[in-house]
Amino acid sequence: xxxxxxxxxxFMGLQVPVALAVKAAYGACVDPDELPDSEHEMRESLDYIxxxxxxxxxxxxxxxxxxxxxxxCGHCEVLRGQVNAKGHCVSWTRRA
Length: 96
Fold this sequence. Notes:
Helices cover 34% and strands 11% of the residues. With 96 residues, the chain is of the alpha+beta class.
């Protein structure tokens, strides 16, 4: 195997673990492509994003959010599914 091919192989081989690590740290709790159309449309209509811009208004501090033990994900009563604790949507309501 030539040095160039070896470098290319190593470079390509390192991209997969890095991509998986980034997804685990910042990624979605569910794959949007695997959501039923109704859930996908609900998330779009409420402008849900996995990383809220304002740390004071993220899902983790919302009254509709129920955290999963040992996870950065939880269940949203409005979106009726898994969401990221650092996510945000327009239905955000401060937890009492």
